[in-house]
Amino acid sequence: MEELEKYQKVANSETFEELLSAVESFAEDGLIKGRTRVFPVRAMINGMKMWYKADDFTLNPNSATREYGIRGKMMELRYYSK
Question: Do 74 and 61 touch, CB atoms closer than 8 A?
Answer without folding.
Answer: yes
